[in-house]
Every structure is written in structure tokens, then in C-alpha cells.
Amino acid sequence: MPDDPILRVQNVHHSYRKGVPVLQGIDLTLQRGEIVALIGRSGAGKSTLLRIVNGLITPTSGDVGVFGIDIAKLPESQRRLVRRRIGMVFQEFNLVDRLTAVKNVLVGRLGYTDTLRSCLHLFSAADIALATECLARVGLAGFEHTRVRDLSGGQKQRVAIARTLAQGSEIILGDEATANLDEHTTTEVLSILSDLARERGITLLLSMHDLTTAREFCQRIVAMKGGKIVFNGAPDQLSDEIVREVLA
Amino acid sequence: MSNQRYRFAAMAAVAIRILVALGVVGLIVWSFRGIPFDLSRLHEGLIGAKEFVLGMVPRTAAEWAKDVHYASTLKTALNQTIQMAVVGTTLGAVVAFPLSFLAARTTSLFRPLSVAVKTFLNIGRAIPIMLYALFIVTVIGLGAPAGALAIGIGSFVMLAKLYAEALESVSPGPVEAVRAVGGSPVQIFVFAMLPQVFPNYLSATLYALELNLQASFVLAIVGAGGIGGELWDNIRIFRYLEVGVIVSALIVIVNAVDYASYRVRQIFS
């Protein structure tokens, strides 16, 4: 059924320590190909919500359906199979600086490579070709063998995006993915992501704190405060009053 | 209320720093008072020292020839010293590597295990390497194998700690990223942790090798063999010229290893 949501979060609660709730009853549904911004101050619970979506964190309670699979109820070994289809880009890029760009993109293939082969860094020719193609797609053709530590911030984030493409991600989660980038590079990175969403039907859920960028690139804005969703709608419905409440 | 509390905490922090600084000064003063340098014998002592040092320097053509001949007989002992250090370091590193995972807070199976392993390693480090050597000598007898084993134990307790510290300092970002792509625990280690810790592992191991070279000179006292044995034999019978040759050889080896390890670290950084 094509109309099934790709992500359905229902009544999710989470706390890291007893009595200190981080998420309090989150309900969120994403359709395939949607571009959604997750805004809110730091500590609002955005990062936790993103990590619950790909099963890095198990919520205290609630249901998390990704591709119709309840990831929160799976054991770790099976969660890994679901995670392969969910890409993630981070504020700090989280690449391995000492390795080359193409090696970092090949990390995206780990979920498909058996452990012994991957330990020896033996990737198939097809995987290497795919990784090279993914780098070209984000405008980094020719940088395959450059060590990541020699790249600029914007280039690093593009390598991270290429890694999610190599994974064959159907959803890309962004955890403040542009917070460390300047205005120009932010636009560049978000343009690549939204083009990919259009071209390949990839769903984007991007946490950010800059409202102008959120309005410009996203079809829907979800605003969080104190572990709750306080707004969920089109950018033009987001009133100044709500913005003040969420970001103040 | 929180303002006042904050001010109190800040004052407490300053007070603690002052106390620690006073403690360090006290320790230094106490230590110097316990070690009285007697400068009154300095003049007399320097004459003896001069004789010792000058005795190592060849001055005549005959002495030079003797030195060159002696140096050529040192090859076996020298090789043995290097081999002892390399074998000991390798054994130590091989055992330390798996154990460091249990010792590191971040990779240990559970917290108490990490504490237990670290305590065990601390006890191991408190015991002088000489004691390990004496113990091993009583078990397997005198010789280079005993020296290599003692060095191996010493390297193991040191490297396991240094490896564990490297593991604990791994930045969690790449680890999370590899988990997020669906990587298995082994893949997380190989792609997120190993690239971060490898330079540290390498420099720790090379540093251990340098220390072990020196340890192997000292272990000669308990009959571990090598060039250290030659050194002690010659010192005992006041053959300063030969001592000079050995000291020159040691200076060359230690610096060669230092330079080589610098280049290796540069290549793999």
C-alpha cells in the first residue's frame, strides 16, 4: 500500500534517568518523500527522537514503526538490518578523519558486507563503484582518495551524505546537520539533500534551530518543546507566537 | 538562591586548588629535605668521576685498536639485547591488546570488570620488572629467554593500561555513525575505533620498545644476558675503556630506535 506512512511514531515516552522525562507522548507520522524540519531549543528532545527512529535508543514506552516494522521491539541484531535503510548525518560529521573519503562512504556498505571481509577492508568492486558514484553525486568526484581530515566542513558533510546514499537510505535523519556550517555551505548541503528527496523519494527528517532555513527547504515543520510536539504543520501556518514560544 | 550556591561552589573550587598546590609544594620540600646533598665532598668526588669518564676515552693508537677490536666482539650480545627487547615488547603487546578492551570503561562488558582489570594492572605495574626477572629466572633459569619474559610482563601491564586509555578517549561520534549504518560490533571497532586509536597504540608500543631496550641493560644484573651483561662485567673489573665502547653502542642504539619510531609514527599518523 503506497499510502502507508514510512514512519509512524505513536505515544513515545523516554527518559534517560527515572523522573526526568525527555520525551513525553510524541506522535509523528511521515509520508514517503516528505521533507520535514524538526525545530526546538537544545534539550527539547530532537536528538533523542531521531535516535529512537533508527533504534539507537529504545524508548521507555510507545511504538515506533519504520517501513511498517516496529524497530523498538526488535533485538539489536535485527535492528541493524532496518538501520541499513536509514541514513544519518550529524552536526560533527562523525567521519573517520584518518580514512579517505571513499573509505568513509564505504562505511555505508558495512551493513551489507560480512564481518570478516569488512575487517580486511575488502569491499566488492560493485561497492567501490557505488561509493565513487555517490561521491560524484554530492559533487566530490576526484576527492575519493583525499583523507577526510583534509576536507572542509561542507565537503565533510557531503561525504556523510554520500555515505547515506551508499547505504541505499530511504530515510535520512539529520541531527543539526548544518549547525557547524556557514550560510552558503548550509544552503549547498540542504539543496543536495532536497534534490535527493525529490529524485529518489528519500524522506528527510532534519533537526535544526534556524527557522529561516527550515522554512526555505522543508514542506512541514514540527516544533518541539520540553519533550512534546507543540506545532506540526506547513511552514506558512507557523505563527510568530508559536515561534516565540518554541525558540524563546 | 542558586546565585549564592554558585558563588560558594566557585570558592570551594578555588580553595581545593590552593590546597592541592600547597600539597605539591609540601611534597617537594619534604623530598628535598630527605635527600641531603653533601657538597663538601664534591671536589674529591669530581676527581674520581673525572678518572672514570676519562678512562672510557681511548687516547693512544693502541687503545683505539683495542676498542675497535672489542666492538667487533660485541655483535652477538648487542643482537641479543635488541632481540630480547623486541620479543618482550611483542609478547606484552599481544597479551595487552585483548585485555585492554576489558580494562577500558567504554568497551568493558560491565563496569566492575573494568575496575577489577585496572586494579590488577595497577598491582602489576607496582612490582618492579627486576622482581619479575628474579622470579622467572628461578623458574626457567638464567639467560635471554628469562629477560625477554620479564620484559614481556612489564610491557603487558604498561601497554594494557595505555591501550585502555586510548580506547576510553575515542570520540563517540564515529562509533555512533557506524552503529547507525547497521554495523556490527566488530565493524564498529574496525571502522570507528581502530582508526582513532591506532596512532596511540603504535606510539605506546614503540615507547615501550625504547623503555625495554633500557630495561634489558639493567636486567643483565640478574643474568638476563645481552650487552648489559658485558657492561656489568666490565664495570666490576674497572675496565673503563670497554665500558666506554658499550656506552657508545647504547647511545647509538637508543637513538636509532628513537629516530626509527619517530619515522614510523609519522608514516602512520
Keywords:
heterodimer, A: 248 residues, alpha/beta, four-stranded antiparallel β-sheet, 10 strands, globular, B: 269 residues, mainly alpha, 11 helices, 0% strand
Protein architecture, described:
The complex is a heterodimer of chains A (248) and B (269). Chain A is an alpha/beta fold. Chain A is built from nine helices and ten strands. In chain A, strand 9 (220-225) and strand 10 form a beta hairpin. In chain A, helix 5 packs across helix 6 (153-167). Chain A starts with 6 loop residues before the first strand and ends with a helix. The relative contact order of chain A is 0.18. The termini of chain B are far apart. With 269 residues, chain B is mainly alpha-helical. Chain B has helices spanning 2-34, 42-56, 61-73, 75-103, 111-126, 129-140, 144-168, 172-180, 185-218, 227-236, 240-268. The chains are: A alpha/beta (248), B mainly alpha (269). At the A-B interface, helix 2, strand 6, helix 4 and helix 6 of A face helix 8 and helix 9 of B.
Topology:
The complex is a heterodimer of chains A (248) and B (269).
Chain A: E1 7-17, E2 20-30, E3 35-39, H1 46-53, E4 61-66, E5 69-70, H2 76-83, E6 86-90, H3 101-106, H4 115-119, H5 125-137, H6 153-167, E7 171-175, H7 183-200, E8 203-208, H8 211-217, E9 220-225, E10 228-233, H9 240-247
Parallel strand pairs in A: 3-8, 3-9, 6-7, 7-8
Antiparallel strand pairs in A: 1-2, 1-4, 4-5, 9-10
Helix pairs in contact in A: 5-6, 6-7
Chain B: H1 2-34, H2 42-56, H3 61-73, H4 75-103, H5 111-126, H6 129-140, H7 144-168, H8 172-180, H9 185-218, H10 227-236, H11 240-268
Helix pairs in contact in B: 2-11, 3-11, 4-7, 4-9, 4-10, 5-7, 6-7, 7-9, 8-9, 9-11, 10-11
Q: Which residues of chain A form runs of ≥5 with pLDDT under 50?
A: none
- Main sheet properties of chain A: 6 strands, mixed
Shape of chain A: globular
The average pLDDT value of chain A, as a whole number, equals 92
Major sheet of chain A: order of its strands?
6-7-8-3-9-10
Q: What amount of the residues of chain A lies in strands?
A: 25-35%
Estimated structural class of chain A: alpha/beta
Overall body shape of chain B: globular
Largest sheet of chain B: none
Oligomer: heterodimer
Low-pLDDT runs of 5+ residues of chain B are none
Spatial separation of the terminal alpha carbons of chain B: 51 Å
| Helix/strand/pairing category of chain B | mainly alpha
Q: Total helix count of chain A?
A: 9
Q: What is the beta-strand fraction of chain B? A: under 5%
Biggest interface, CB < 8 A: A-B, 29 and 20 residues
Strand elements of chain B, count: 0
